Amino acid sequence: MIKQVFAASFILFAGSALSNNLTVEEQRIAAATHAMPQVLSAFADEVSQFQQQWQKLNSYKQANDLVANYASQLWFNAKQRIASTKNYDDRELYWARLLSTKIMRATKPQFALSAAQLGSLLSQLEQGSRGHRDLSFTQGSTKKIILTGFDPFLLDKNINQSNPSGVAALLLDGQVINYQGISAEINTVMVPVRYADFDQGIIEALLAPYYALNNVDMIVTVSMGRKHFDLERFPGKRRSVTAPDNANIVYGGTQTAPLIPQLNSQPLPGDEFVQFSLPVANMQQAQGPYKVIDNHEVTTLEKTYLPATLAELKNSIAVNGSGGGYLSNEISYRSIRLRNQLNSTIPTGHIHTPRIQQFEPAIEAKIVKQITAILEHSLTAL
Whole-number mean pLDDT of the chain? Predict the structure, then answer.
């Protein structure tokens, strides 16, 4: 209770210094604090200490060192906390990150900080607290797997929404799984639900080194989806949904006028559809409460159907890939397109998890357990 009261007072203090430059995500902090104070207070001590240190900074070098260390520690502490508490709650890290970026935007240090410098520091915090600077394999396992998860999203509908893919990323990072004498170390990262980050090439920058060097054994992107697990066979190129991202940007096109995303200010290149390369048959052997579906369903401008092969989609315009028309489909498309462009042989594809309502830790525990089983069964095919 003391920690919760402290967190609430800290948030009010930070709010008293608000600038007009807070992001849409940061502006939700007040509503989140009211709805779930225990989530916002989870990292109250760390955030408060960061605020005190930030206000005392005398140089950009000091700021850079502070943010780099703090971001890495936030990622590490979030993983440790979810593992020790077994609360299956990814929301704590998400909101702690926003409390921290809010401090950086709204509170001045003791030196003149330019907009460019602030932008660089915010990027440093984002990447470090998402595990993007922690992708190293150190366990000496037989195989290496990279897995990505997403932030909670559609928060104006459910401010207390959780995302099973984020829970999986936090719990599985650095873990070693074993199956039939084969071991694999899993390294994970978290990805924002923001169109702008995708258009600026966040996925390409993250994954290109691995595809170029062909030095991991599987790359799996994960997000929250439908009723069961879906392995998304044919991701589509275009955006076609009116749902906003976490910045409340609606850039999804429509079912009749799907839009091509950007890559560094240019239209995203590539075919309308691509095909995953996951070991489907092995993954479907994983036991659990949910089916594991090899999902072929796509929508083109002409029809919605279940193509058997990629060749059937050759002259079609993508509306929905098998993963839909939102960022979960897009992360799959971008990763596979990049793999193909760099002539990589790394098996790559997307897993949609069962959907949850707001925050359901018992269900999320089952989802993460079955994701682990799916990955384990894949090992004999890698």
Answer: 94
